[in-house]
Amino acid sequence: MRENWNRRAFLKTGVMTAATVAASHAVPRCFLLAEETRGANDRVAVGFIGAGGRGTDLFRTFYGCEDVQVTAVADCFKSRRENAARICGGRPMLDFQEMLDGDLVDAVVIATPDHWHVPAALAAAKAKKHVYVEKPLGLTLAEDLECERVLTEAGVVFQYGTQQRSQDNCWLGCECVRQGRIGNVVAVEVDAPDGGAGGDAAEAPIPEDLGADGYRQWLGSAPVKPYCLDRCKTPGTYWIYDQSIGYLGGWGAHPLDILVWGCDADVSGPVTVEGSGLLTPGLYDTVHGWDMKLKLGDVAMTFKPGGDRTRFIGESGAWIEVRRNGTDASSPELLAPLEEGAEILPKRAGRNHVTDFVSAVKAGGTPVSTLRDAVRSDTLSHLCDIAVRTHSVVKWDPVKRELVEPSAEQTKMLSRSLNHPGGV
Question: For the whole model, what pTM was predicted?
Fold first, then answer.
């Protein structure tokens, strides 16, 4: 961790004034006012790997945390890394490996396109840096298991970007299920927003802001393909199979994580997955329009496109449904307040997801979204992807964490051939 540097002076006299930063980059005024009152402090030095889209939102939150000093920003787009670095006074860079060499950072926030999540996390863990990783986790089951192994051995703090665990209503719903309010869970219904088809695959000049070096870095271990307008921006970053499994994981991570948090059906016995989905030729080639049926031990599960919800159904038909915008139940008493001290799940909503991570880094604790649970929920996404793409029933042993009597086609999908492992 680093001694506090004077961000207030930077904001007033640096490349940008505080007023310009607030206007141009939408940094909340409370963040700037806090600079007036913060004294010298032992802050967690954080580096950002990815500063566009979700990375921008996270940057604002981390930058506003009084226990954080953002010291480095890596992004393949020059304007993104330089703009963010000007705000925080940190070092801009194309290759994030530069921030891992030495003591520039204590922790990194990984908000890249999906295919870089695990490679960046592995590099950070090997450098003994703590990691906050946006969802989904890996491109394959092999990546997920390798990520868990390496990060566990490294002993670094991990927080997954499933921020619903830091919402009071999501905690309450899952806690009440864990408390046995609906009896034994016999079925779970999971919905997540759908993906789609389309995209312009026509080769186009690489933008000057990205450049040839930036595009090579952006591709990382993905297959080398000519640059096209829709590859490096949403929704292409989520819907192109070279770099993602689509919303089966990208959005599915949220309600599937709620399933894992609310019960242990996915590890209660053998898992069987079957179903259908659309695979449309074109640039956007991840599964969409899926209709999955799973058996998690003795628990029946469905997974379909829709909103963002997880409904737990008990043996008597009573149910509790958890969504980010609310939690409902078949009867109001199922969500009645708990007795003080009776909680099973950690309740961190008052601290928010980012603060929970920072506190764990400083105190050596475990954040609310654990690596083991990230692997559990991501496993369900990958099993669904394998089932759709191989047109087969997939069986999984959650204890051995391996496919049961897999076909050659299923086995092949456990991993991918990498273009250049670890990036350029």
Answer: 0.90
